[in-house]
Specification:
This protein is mainly beta. It is 5% helix and 46% strand. It contains one helix and 20 strands. The strands form six sheets. It has a four-stranded antiparallel sheet. A four-stranded antiparallel sheet has the order 8-9-10-11, with no helix packed on it. It is globular, with a radius of gyration of 19 Å.
């Protein structure tokens, strides 16, 4: 369920402060406060909202943001960006708690084409990571989930590392991958999961890096049911090797309600227990002015 893409990317300082406080409790262009940004229609943005994006892209969609646990004033954001019909992945960084932002442009090696689905995280050493799907319109049913690493808070990124790669012989399409880092001090573990489609079939695949994103293990299925209607993975990591992968399972007719399912590991992703169904979710009543994409 995605909101229709917006022209600019905005963020609320209050949300950033809350995220930074949570982390502390657990262990090129700028947007300036006091100069309210304008929306696409020329109207001023609501008080307390900072415009993050000041770039050449016509629209931005499905943003993600993370706070650096080593420096809570450092925030890293990423978004899908639109340039004509092409869709790319761009990043933004703040070093003053979200008051001002700089654009780092599109991620290295990912010229806008048919890219999608960014996720952002930091590890306890302060390395930032962005995952995203890179694809070409010429091969719309084939893409690869990549991970980029930054060691300077989002100013620069290392070359992309393939984490879940589609096969040319048997075209595979990765959808809405999720990324998380082990929160344990000194850990180099990074976890990624996504739904991989092969024609009319699909499976939930998981991979991990044990060297801070330099390399990834071969992706493997972690849900034996291999439902053709799984969607939208979210990955979270906790102490003592805990990894949880949440995802939706749609009915075969593609209509709500959908089932929320979680696959859990307690050994840093080396193995997973049988997925647990948590319950069903129905979409809320329509909201005037909000357009939903339920694909």
């Amino acid at each position: 369920m995605n909101l229709r893409h917006s022209r600019h990317l905005f963020i609320t300082p209050a949300a950033v402060a809350l995220a930074a406080a949570f982390i502390a409790g657990c262990g090129a262009a700028h947007a300036k406060v006091g100069s309210p940004p304008s929306t696409a229609g020329g109207r001023p943005a609501p008080t307390g909202i900072v415009q993050v994006s000041h770039d050449q892209f016509g629209a931005h969609a499905e943003p993600a943001v993370a706070v650096n646990p080593r420096n809570p004033r450092n925030l890293l954001a990423a978004s899908m960006v639109f340039q004509g019909r092409a869709r790319g992945l761009a990043t933004y960084a703040s070093f003053d708690g979200g008051l001002t932002w700089q654009s780092s442009g599109v991620l290295p090696g990912a010229a806008p084409d048919n890219d999608a689905d960014v996720t952002v995280t930091f590890d306890q050493a302060g390395h930032g990571y962005v995952s995203g799907l890179v694809a070409s319109r010429a091969q719309s049913q084939l893409n690869t989930a990549y991970v980029w690493r930054t060691d300077d808070g989002g100013r620069h990124f290392k070359p992309a590392v393939a984490a879940i790669r589609g096969s040319v012989d048997h075209p595979e399409f990765v959808d809405h991958s999720g990324l998380a880092a082990d929160p344990t001090a000194g850990s180099a573990d990074l976890y990624l999961a996504g739904i991989v489609f092969q024609g009319s079939t699909s499976e939930l695949r998981f991979t991990r890096s044990t060297d801070s994103g330099r390399t990834f293990e071969p992706a493997r299925s972690i849900d034996p049911s291999n439902s053709s209607y799984d969607r939208d993975t979210v990955v979270a990591a906790g102490p003592d090797g805990l990894v949880a992968v949440m995802y939706y399972t749609w009915p075969s007719n593609g209509s709500p309600p959908v089932t929320v399912t979680v696959a859990t590991s307690t050994d840093h992703g080396a193995s997973f227990a049988t997925p647990v169904r948590l319950g069903t979710v129905r979409w809320p009543a329509p909201v005037l002015g909000v357009n939903l994409d339920l694909s």
